[in-house]
């Protein structure tokens, strides 16, 4: 096993016997013009080459720092086995193979959702994403329509969510979920409780679903498969929708479609309702309305000082809220309904929900235009 926690020192040790490499040539240096030095030089050169090879081999090992047995792994395992019928030794040996992922810690401190809308929107509202969405809809039309009949969530929304999450299953993440969740649970104190819980759900999920915990890949936050469900959502909301009696969000598009629709239904989606309307707002009404947050709280018709277009009239009695976005052409205001809020349960961001809504509308226009 190559183990070199201090690669610099390893190189120094090897070079210590090769004085001709010294930066400070000394008088009486035995390599200077002396006889019988060639073999020594060669030996030293071989030593340096060997050291370089060992160093190269060791570097991944250096990057792959594990977790502390006593301080991190064992307390978690004890907590786990006290709550669930899980084999302690199996959990322990699994966590010993988890490694700290610095990329995860870097990514979570700069999420895309921290950008203003004018910078966030172009990430997702792109012709390619809309075009591929139309193709995805055509290809999986039967499943999408069945999901709408069953859960009330229209195809455009399911397609747009899968499009925003993974570009229709083509980018599902390359980090081992075990590493990501362990890193966030043990090395990211701000959200340690949440990610410890997700790590717990992950270990239960792989046991229940018969998955290989060392091969399941996902996003930096441990989201998995075509719809990027985190472990607790997978356990609580994923369904078998293609009829093979397995819930497979990694390989089954049908299961992904059914699971997204069911997730939204369980989080308050209202069949047939709109998502959001552009709004104009009397300046005096703004602070209080924005202060109230994005969870719908007042009937649309009763939002004082707010006007939406004619398309809003059918939803006058629905609970509504107001949001503000920093758009490319200035500040935008939108009235949002329960369906907008349901999308934010998928990713707790008004930017995310608005990207899904606008991509869905774009895909719908192109789908209907192409089909008509
Ligand atoms: Ca299935």
Strand order, largest beta sheet? 4-6-7-3-5
Can you write the helix and strand succession as a string?
A: HHHHHHHHHEHHEHHEHEEEEHH
User: Treating each run of at least 4 consecutive H or I residues as one helix, how many helices?
Assistant: 16
Mean pLDDT: 87
Extract low-pLDDT stretches: 1-41, 47-58
> Helical proportion?
40-55%
**What's the CATH class label of the largest domain?**
Mainly Alpha
End-to-end Cα distance, whole Å, is 64 Å
Derived structural class = alpha+beta
The proportion of residues in beta strands is 5-15%
Bound molecules: calcium ion
Per CATH, the superfamily of the largest domain is Bacterial muramidase
CATH topology of the largest domain: Helicase, Ruva Protein, domain 3
Total E-strand runs: 7
Tell me, briefly, the overall form: globular
- The number of distinct structural domains comes to 3
Q: Overview of this structure, please?
A:
This protein is an alpha+beta fold. The protein has 3 domains: 7-63, no CATH class; 70-108 and 167-266, Bacterial muramidase (Helicase, Ruva Protein, domain 3, Orthogonal Bundle), CATH 1.10.8; 276-371, Lysozyme. The protein is 52% helix and 8% strand. The chain is built from 16 helices and 7 strands. The strands form 2 sheets. A 5-stranded antiparallel beta sheet has the order 4-6-7-3-5. Strands 1-2 form a two-stranded antiparallel sheet. Strand 6 and strand 7 form a beta hairpin. Helix 7 crosses helix 9, helix 7 (127-139) packs across helix 16 and helix 15 (338-344) packs across helix 16. The longest helix has 26 residues, at 38-63. It is globular. The termini are far apart. The structure holds calcium ion. Calcium ion (CA) binds next to loops.
